[in-house]
Amino acid sequence: MQRFTCDCGNVLFFGSSKCLKCGQVVGYDPQSETMVTLRPDRGVKRCDNGVRYGVCNWLLPKSSPEVLCVACRMNRTIPELHVERNLMLWGRMEIAKRQLIYTLLRLGMKLPSKAESPEAGLAFDIISTVSNPAVTTGHLNGVITVNLEEADDTYRQINRQQLGESSRTLLGHFRHESAHYLWRRYLSNLAWDDPQRLAFRERFGDEWIDYAGALSTYYARGAPVGWEQSFITGYAASHPWEDWAETWAHYLQIIDGLETCESLGIQVQHLALALVMLPGEAGTLPSMLEQSGVSDGEFLAWLQRWMCLSTVLNEISHSLGEPPLYPFVISVRVAQKLRLAHHFSKKWRITE
Ligand SMILES: [Zn+2]
Ligand SMILES: [Zn+2]
Ligand SMILES: [Zn+2]
To answer: Which ligand has the minimum distance to the alpha carbon of residue 101?
Structure first.
């Protein structure tokens, strides 16, 4: 996440809708990728979901015939708002959803809504299992469905413990499901022997193995012993598609985490730990992976910065008496998968 400031110089956050120092109304403008104050000369207006319900702080051009921002226009179903608590839960969902869309747009991807592009577009169904018990979080044909109840922290923690997960967040759900959407959009239509499909299979395994069977085996037996050597989470071991989704979600997490640090002026190479964790001289490679090109060197240095920083995060949470903030281990095989995610993200940038 970038660092944002108000016209008055005060710090603003991604979710801010008002400057706490000067009192001006502010919002995030996805076109300029920055937070702006809502002055008449700015040519922007607030998203209607912000004006009416207080669940969105994004802006859109004043001249636009639309009333919803680019992120809210992707909603196909929103929760039933006559149920009082749904508004609060929906607001939490929208923050996580906008953070996903922010990162994908920052990566240079074009993200049409399903209404604009029925084939390549993306839509969200945000539905509560209270009113619709059959709903499960997932992706199908460009529609990401999320269970609204997951925005209830207690509900989500109970699920996390029952599923034996080390981390379960709303943002993680959105990032994970975005991977299934991107797989369908960019990889599913390629020939099975296309280089990208072959690269996928080499890293993640044969995607044609029976999905329903693989998942029911996973839920019956759990992840195999030693999964940490090959997968970022236990769930990733269930099927190559889930491995991809967990890896991609993790890739986005690192992107966002490092951007936040660097925008706040934390230079990882200046940390004491960097002496042992970062490559010493220019051109020296991290020992964990072979370099296979110039941009690969950049990727490896990037990953090393994150591994150094995440160690610091865990030491800080330890000092606070909390469990590790970053309960993951990046093995060599996971690093290779992250490298492929990085490669795909470059391919999926808009080039026109
Ligand atoms: Zn201000
Ligand atoms: Zn909006
Ligand atoms: Zn999945």
So the answer is: 2
pLDDT digits 0-9 by tens, 167-222:
999 999 999 999 999 999 999 999 999 999 999 999 999 999 999 999 999 999 99
| 315 touches 284 (CB < 8 A) | no
Enclosing H/E stretch for 176:
helix 170-182
Q: Are strands 11-12 and 26-29 parallel, antiparallel or unpaired?
A: unpaired
Query: How far, in Å, are 151, 304, 313 from residue 269 at the CA level?
Result: 36, 10, 15
* Closest ligand to residue 98's CA: 2
Q: Report whether pLDDT(352) > 70.
A: no
Task: Give yes or no for a contact between 254 and 306, defined as CB atoms under 8 angstroms apart.
Answer: yes
Does the pLDDT at position 292 exceed 80? Answer: no
Cα of 30 to ligand 3 centre, how many Å? 27
| Residue 235 Cα to ligand 3 middle (Å) | 9
Cβ-proximal residues to 288 (8 Å cutoff; 6+ apart), any chain: 300, 332, 335
The token pair that represents 250 in the structure block: 């993790």
Cα of 57 from ligand 2 centre, angstroms: 6
pTM (predicted TM-score): 0.94
Q: Which ligand is nearest to the CA of 39?
A: 1
**Ligand 3 centroid to residue 303 C-alpha, Å:** 24
pLDDT band (50, 70, 90) for residue 271: confident
Tokens matching residue 122: 């993306």
